[in-house]
């Protein structure tokens, strides 16, 4: 049962990565449509797309690091420094995404007054910060588990 669940989660992590890459490609073509419909903000197409690469690239890298942690878990090496680092790097990835979301808010405030994008970006910041907290907590739990496992191994 454990192996089946792990393969199931790995499949969905890979599917999520591919879905986000597909979303980046679709956003690229969508940016041309928006630039044609709103020529007054066409100059924003490339900078906003570059910010979206960072915003979507951060969960892609977090999924990659999560996949690495899941692989360590599936091989029976849960309480290892490598697993804790992979989970911490997932948290760092989402923190980088928060940075790009803040840059998006600043860019849109300077160029488009009253943009609804800022509301969505604030929601994204909240979600990303929750993910940061969860991954840092998991990393800390694994680190504490390593200490407890080391103590237990020394007493036997």
Explain this structure.
This protein has 156 residues and is mainly α. The chain contains 4 helices and no strands. The longest helix has 39 residues. The two termini are 31 Å apart.
What's the quick description here?
With 156 residues, this protein is mostly helical.
Helices and strands in order:
Elements lengths: L1 H36 L7 H30 L6 H31 L5 H39 L1
Radius of gyration: 20 Å
Shape: elongated
Helix content: over 70%
Average of per-residue pLDDT values: 89
Give, in order, the helices and strands.
HHHH
Percent of residues in β-strands: under 5%
Number of strands: 0
SS-derived structural category: mainly alpha
Q: Can you count the helices?
A: 4
- N→C terminal distance: 31 Å
Descriptors:
4 helices; mainly alpha; 156 residues; 87% helix; elongated
């Amino acid at each position: 049962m454990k192996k089946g669940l792990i393969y199931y989660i790995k499949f969905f992590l890979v599917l999520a990565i591919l879905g986000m890459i597909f979303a980046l490609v679709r956003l690229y073509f969508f940016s041309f449509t928006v630039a044609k419909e709103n020529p007054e903000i066409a100059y924003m197409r490339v900078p906003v797309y570059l910010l979206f690469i960072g915003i979507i690239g951060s969960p892609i890298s977090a999924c990659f690091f999560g996949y690495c942690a899941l692989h360590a878990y599936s091989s029976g090496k849960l309480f290892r420094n490598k697993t804790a680092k992979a989970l911490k790097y997932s948290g760092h990835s989402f923190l980088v995404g928060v940075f790009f979301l803040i840059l998006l808010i600043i860019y849109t405030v300077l160029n488009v007054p009253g943009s609804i994008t800022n509301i969505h970006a604030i929601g994204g910041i909240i979600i990303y910060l929750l993910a940061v907290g969860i991954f840092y907590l998991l990393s800390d739990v694994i680190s504490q588990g390593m200490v407890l496992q080391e103590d237990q191994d020394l007493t036997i």
